[in-house]
Design brief:
Blueprint: H1 2-24, E1 34-37, E2 43-55, E3 58-62, E4 67-71, E5 76-87, E6 94-113, E7 116-140, E8 143-162, E9 168-187, E10 192-202, E11 205-215, E12 218-226, E13 229-239, E14 246-249
Antiparallel strand pairs: 1-14, 2-5, 2-13, 3-4, 3-12, 5-6, 6-7, 7-8, 8-9, 9-10, 10-13, 11-12
Length: about 250
């Protein structure tokens, strides 16, 4: 009886030692991942903006009198809308985007020729303009600094008028040119964001107005040089389907 009891105790002891050894060799069990949202700029959006536009002096050159003069234009209110799309790779601080902008501005100036007060020139950029630009941004979570550039389309007009003959000659065209600038955008939540932006439109264009404006039967031309335009604006954007990808955090 004692032998059976001793054998049983020995068996139980060996089993316990083996179980303990097995437990000591097991790998620790990881806690399951927790999925947490991380803000992303990816998505398409629409927006609106207001601001100001200004430019350097206009210059008119008269081919008949072989003279030229410059005159100032007034600063202008600008406002309009934007539409665009952003893409931000998961885990990257960079954002790539494409944006279209259409708005209003009106930069106009006029003056008499200083040597001939009967001859007046007028130049106007507006009432509309548009842009198609690419955008590259670098983010700090919900804040993004960006640069953008591309093509701009601007309506421009010019005219020359003589009070002696009562004749006025005008011309207008849509100027296709370049634009570049940048800004800062901050996301208020998953959908809404605000921005401040500066853009330069490189006009550097000339409009010709030609005709018998000097006196009857005398043909002349005026060249109207249009300067580059600066715009500064603040805006509000709404991103469709605003949300955040779920990223595993251990």
């Amino acid at each position: 009886m004692k032998k059976i009891l001793l054998a049983t105790i020995a068996t139980l002891a060996m089993t316990g030692v083996a179980a303990a050894a097995d437990l000591s060799t097991r790998m620790p069990v990881k806690a399951p991942p927790v999925y947490a949202p991380v803000f992303s700029w990816t998505g398409c959006y629409v927006g609106a903006y207001v601001g100001a536009a200004w430019a350097g002096n206009y210059t008119a050159t008269d081919s008949y009198y072989l003279n030229n003069w410059s005159y100032k234009n007034d600063a202008s209110f600008t406002g309009g809308g934007t539409v665009g799309c952003n893409w931000q790779p998961v885990g990257s601080p960079f954002v790539l985007g494409l944006e279209g902008e259409f708005g209003y501005l009106n930069l106009e100036g006029n003056a008499y020729a200083p040597w001939l007060t009967t001859l007046a020139a007028n130049s106007k950029v507006g009432d509309w303009y548009g842009m198609i630009t690419g955008r590259v941004g670098y983010t700090f979570d919900r804040a993004m600094i960006y640069v953008k550039g591309g093509a701009a389309f601007v309506n421009a007009e010019a005219s020359i008028y003589s009070t002696v003959t009562g004749v006025g000659i005008s011309a207008s065209e849509t100027v296709t040119t370049w634009t570049v600038g940048g800004g800062l955008e901050y996301a208020l939540d998953m959908n809404w964001s605000v921005k401040a932006e500066y853009m330069y439109i490189g006009m550097n264009d000339t409009i010709q107005t030609c005709g018998n404006y000097v006196r009857v039967g005398v043909y002349g031309c005026n060249s109207h040089d249009l300067p580059g335009i600066s715009t500064a604006k603040i805006g509000l954007n709404y991103r469709f389907g605003g949300g955040a990808p779920m990223v595993a955090r251990y």
